[in-house]
Amino acid sequence: MQVRSDALESHLKRGLAPLYTVWGDEALLVQEACDAIRAAARAAGCSERQVHTVAGQHFDWSSLLGAAQALSLFADRQLVEIRIPSGKPGKDGSEALQRYCEAAVAGGGRDVITLVQLPRLDGMQQKSAWFAALDRAGVSIRVYPVERAALPAWIVERMATQGQGVASGPEGQKTLAFFADRIEGNLLAAHQEVQKLGLLYPPGELSFEQIEAAVLNVARYDVFKLGEAVLAGQAARALRMLEGLEAEGEAAVLVHWTLAEDIRGLKRVKDALGAGKPMPLALREARVWGAKERVFERALALLSDAALAHLLEAAHICDGLVKGLKHPDWPHDPWQGLKRLVLMLVEETARVGGKPATRMALTA
What we know:
Elements: H1 8-13, E1 19-23, H2 27-43, E2 46-53, H3 61-69, E3 77-83, H4 90-107, E4 112-118, H5 123-126, H6 129-137, E5 139-142, H7 151-160, E6 164-166, H8 169-183, H9 187-200, E7 204-206, H10 208-214, H11 223-231, H12 235-247, H13 252-274, H14 279-285, H15 291-300, H16 305-322, H17 334-349, E8 351-352, E9 355-356
Parallel strand pairs: 1-4, 1-5, 2-3, 3-4, 6-7
Antiparallel strand pairs: 8-9
């Protein structure tokens, strides 16, 4: 059975399942979900806790099966935690987990409550026999990352738990946008920044100046999110992400590859649409999934064939720059070349009322 992470608290109040599987790559939210399950298990009489971390190919699965079946002399119930950081238990682990799930269902959680912690899983892992067994045996909680657009609401919710908030209207929106820019991609540090506000200031409404003075720049940027910002026409965010990636030591070759892949993907979808294929099929054939679908549809409505040809040529030139080649009409520094490519993409996709945005300085 699957339960949303935001519904976990109400689920736990109705009673404990014999087994819980928490998976996802947002460390803070995974930690909070696991903490909630641990607290509920303690309240239900689990006074002993075992932790088994599966690291490498030589984990002793028999010890896990034996430990779960051997009750402590001093504990009425126990909590058994199984952590698989790689998300790949292997053949022996797959068989052991399936046997373990059968025992968990048979026990009904009377003596043992199990908590399995996993990273983000790909489609193949989600369809595996061992994960299906975990899902059938108890409750599966998938933890999704908080996207940039949802960050302001997340900040408001977290501040409200300590009796704080921001002004309503444009002033509050400005404050939340600033806060979100400072913490994007680093939710654990964002949580700490919110807690710091609770220590620095009393409950009530906080001003922009107070938050500006207190909140550190702890943002961490994902190279694969850069393309989404570019194709959404978000110039300031895209340039901020590019600078952050450079500061974090990301490889310029990888950044260029992600941008070039997006341009090539746009060309493939554009050609497929020109051949009469419907948009969903064209996107699927170009291997465009999830959030990228929306920004691709938006960008394709704005890009002409000539613009795409120009962008492909620019991406080719930039490919040489990041590999050490020079071009007389482009900056010699690879990151400055990447900045120019980003600005060219944004200029084509950042339009207001169907018209191109004000022309940007592409020679920067």
